[in-house]
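Sequence in, structure out. Go.
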Amino acid sequence: MKLVFFRGKVPNFGDELNLLVWPALLPKNFLDEDESELFVGIGSIIGDHLPAGSRKYVMGSGYAGYMGLPDVHDGTWDIRFLRGPNTARTLKVDPRLSICDSAVLLRAMDLPPPDQTTGIAFMPHYESLERGDWATACRLAGMTLIDATEPVDKVLGQIRGAKLLITEAMHGAIVADALRTPWIGARPIYGGHHKKWLDWAGALDLDVRLNELKPTSVLEYYIARTGRGGELGKVGRFNRSPLAGIPNRILVGMAAQHLQRMAQMTAQLSSDAKIAEVTEKAWTAVDSFVRERQTVA
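Output:
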């Protein structure tokens, strides 16, 4: 059974969590490279891109519309639990399968120690790291930049040690909430990333607040105004040119000031009772699956 998750041209914290969580929680040699069976893990990876002939076991994944909608009733899908109610509704499956994003299972693991030097931190979506200048914005704002492309252990230590996490990255909020670090959601600059937040939050009975995030570059400004993603051709080239230097510096300064204002907002956390409840349900689903497989074997 092969573990499947999204991998882009750079590592991304939410996706790379799969390589930490599942080897730690599943029996040794439970996963292999046999693609006839797929273990569909953390991330928005439910879609029609997965091999039609493979048996697919879903463990807390979500559907966000990045890929085409699959027919999960075609006999090749075995959904043990889903990230949230929106995914269950879209797939037309039992709403009781909506439990939580499986990154919540970090609560059942031994984790890196908190990095007590983190203080107030901002975690951009990994795409924003390339499109904008969040390192300078965080420096001007007096905050720690948490880089979603850095090693998972480092990011986990920073999230655990943060006094407050402002995050554009959804798995920044998911992990902060699971580990009880207060967080403030930032509405992703690219609009295509908005809906999945509501899916996850719905599983926790959480009225998530996604606060406006100011762009740090001409390219981010264009993406925010048009809703377009990708490299964006002429705009992307202009953004990297000397001509964009002055407007980009102005935008970075405005974004830094806005981050400081965001840090004064009321942080969010799901209830202790709810996070404990969904953790237990997710673990029970995984444990039951493992026991079934071992019985068959």
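Check: Residues 2-106+274-296 form one domain. The chain has a mean pLDDT of 95.
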